[in-house]
């Protein structure tokens, strides 16, 4: 294996939807600690998850996440495996009684997947769908058909593929609100107390893949149906500090470094300010041009995932090739949507968005 000094200036601007860019400072810290974590003579990857050292790393990560989101004391924070997709099953297995009904809001591919999986476990009412708006707008809550006795209401706060994001929190009274926040957690302020359960796959705004974070109100624990696999029972995970079995130790550690980095940046409020400026700049570049377009209703445009099309799709290949040459990577849109998509998570700085906007203007001038 070739070993060479890392040249930070060689790091590209990575607009990947996930696994996504991580802060360079975090990777450098992990690099510095790789062979010898804090003088212990071993890597975090080689530690027992039961060791005092690792338990301290894991607890600090949890505490930092709690601080960042001001998680109330009556919520558990779990660091689990299986990705956000496993939660599509874990949620009904824990929260939907066999003879009950759960309400789901369908706003795109990810919420659709959650619905399809939940249907394997019980009655699902699709209370609202963005289909009538071609998934370009979110139906207002007045148009939702919520069930009278739903076990919970599920929605996806940011559809990573379509680029459709709620800028409001559904009001569902005493029914637990469950949100897939895989692609927008920690990007703007959030009142955790409005939710029964929040889950997020790590590989966008949290850390590397291999981890899903679940924030769950304690009164929702202990409701799993008897057929629920042990590994998917939230109460068992909570009672064992997310260590019923060996957790994804390195992903958990690296996520902890991301939380420390976020605190150093000024926390979620600071990220919200930066993210607002980033998305304003990019959407303005799209809207000011006749060459680029984004179809999403303005109040539902995602701050994190910005899909856009070129006026002539025959130019897509040239656009992507030029972007690659300039170190602007992973701008190809999802195969189901086509066009381009720029994912501008927390670790993608304003400098990356400025470089992208400058390239877009240059390409338009030359090729439009
Ligand atoms: C909003 C959303 N939900 C769920 C998932 C699935 O996540 P995972 O690959 O961790 O299962 C993704 C992945 O991109 C996503 O963006």
TrEMBL record:
Modified residues (N6-(pyridoxal phosphate)lysine): 204
Catalytic function, reaction form: 4-(phosphooxy)-L-threonine + 2-oxoglutarate = (R)-3-hydroxy-2-oxo-4-phosphooxybutanoate + L-glutamate; O-phospho-L-serine + 2-oxoglutarate = 3-phosphooxypyruvate + L-glutamate
Residues binding pyridoxal 5'-phosphate: 84-85, 110, 160, 180, 203, 245-246
GO cellular component: cytoplasm
UniProt cofactor note: Binds 1 pyridoxal phosphate per subunit.
EC class (word): transferase
Record-listed L-glutamate binding positions: 50
GO molecular function: O-phospho-L-serine:2-oxoglutarate aminotransferase activity; pyridoxal phosphate binding
InterPro entries from the UniProt entry: Aminotrans_V_dom (IPR000192), Pser_aminoTfrase (IPR022278), PyrdxlP-dep_Trfase (IPR015424), PyrdxlP-dep_Trfase_major (IPR015421), PyrdxlP-dep_Trfase_small (IPR015422)
Sorted UniProt keywords: Amino-acid biosynthesis, Aminotransferase, Cytoplasm, Pyridoxal phosphate, Pyridoxine biosynthesis, Serine biosynthesis, Transferase
Cofactor(s) listed: pyridoxal 5'-phosphate
Broad class of the protein's primary localization: cytoplasm
Protein's GO biological process: L-serine biosynthetic process; pyridoxine biosynthetic process
EC number: 2.6.1.52
Family per similarity comment: Belongs to the class-V pyridoxal-phosphate-dependent aminotransferase family. SerC subfamily.
Quaternary structure and partners: Homodimer.
Functional summary from the UniProt entry: Catalyzes the reversible conversion of 3-phosphohydroxypyruvate to phosphoserine and of 3-hydroxy-2-oxo-4-phosphonooxybutanoate to phosphohydroxythreonine.
Name of the protein this chain belongs to: Phosphoserine aminotransferase
């Amino acid at each position: 294996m070739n070993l060479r000094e890392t040249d930070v200036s060689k790091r590209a601007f990575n607009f990947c939807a996930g696994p996504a860019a991580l802060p360079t400072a975090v990777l450098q810290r992990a690099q510095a600690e790789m062979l010898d974590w804090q003088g212990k003579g071993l890597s975090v990857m080689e530690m027992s998850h039961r060791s005092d050292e690792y338990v301290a790393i894991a607890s600090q990560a949890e505490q930092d996440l709690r601080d960042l989101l001001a998680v109330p004391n009556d919520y558990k924070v779990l660091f689990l495996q299986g990705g956000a997709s496993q939660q599509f099953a874990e949620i009904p297995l824990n929260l939907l009684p066999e003879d009950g009904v759960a309400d789901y809001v369908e706003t795109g591919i990810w919420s659709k997947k959650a619905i399809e999986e939940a249907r394997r476990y019980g009655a699902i009412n699709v209370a609202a769908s963005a289909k009538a708006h071609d998934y370009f707008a979110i139906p207002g809550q007045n148009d939702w058909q919520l069930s009278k006795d739903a076990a919970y209401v599920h929605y996806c706060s940011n559809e990573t593929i379509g680029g459709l994001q709620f800028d409001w929190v559904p009001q569902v009274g005493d029914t637990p609100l469950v949100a897939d926040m895989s692609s927008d957690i920690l990007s703007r302020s959030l009142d955790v107390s409005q939710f029964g359960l929040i889950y997020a796959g790590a590989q966008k705004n949290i850390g590397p893949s291999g981890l899903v974070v679940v924030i769950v109100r304690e009164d929702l624990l202990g409701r799993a149906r008897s057929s629920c696999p042990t590994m998917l029972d939230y109460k068992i995970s909570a009672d064992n500090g997310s260590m019923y079995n060996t957790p994804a130790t390195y992903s958990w550690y690296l996520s902890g470094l991301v939380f420390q980095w976020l605190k150093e940046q000024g926390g979620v409020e600071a990220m919200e300010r930066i993210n607002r400026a980033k998305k304003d700049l990019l959407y303005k570049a799209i809207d000011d041009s006749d060459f680029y377009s984004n179809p999403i209703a303005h109040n539902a445009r995602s701050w994190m995932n910005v899909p856009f099309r070129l006026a002539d799709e025959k130019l897509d290949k040239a656009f992507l090739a030029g972007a690659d040459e300039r170190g602007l990577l992973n701008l190809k849109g999802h195969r189901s949507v086509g066009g381009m998509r720029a994912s501008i998570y927390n670790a993608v700085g304003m400098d990356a968005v400025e470089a992208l906007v400058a390239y877009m203007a240059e390409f338009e001038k030359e090729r439009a």
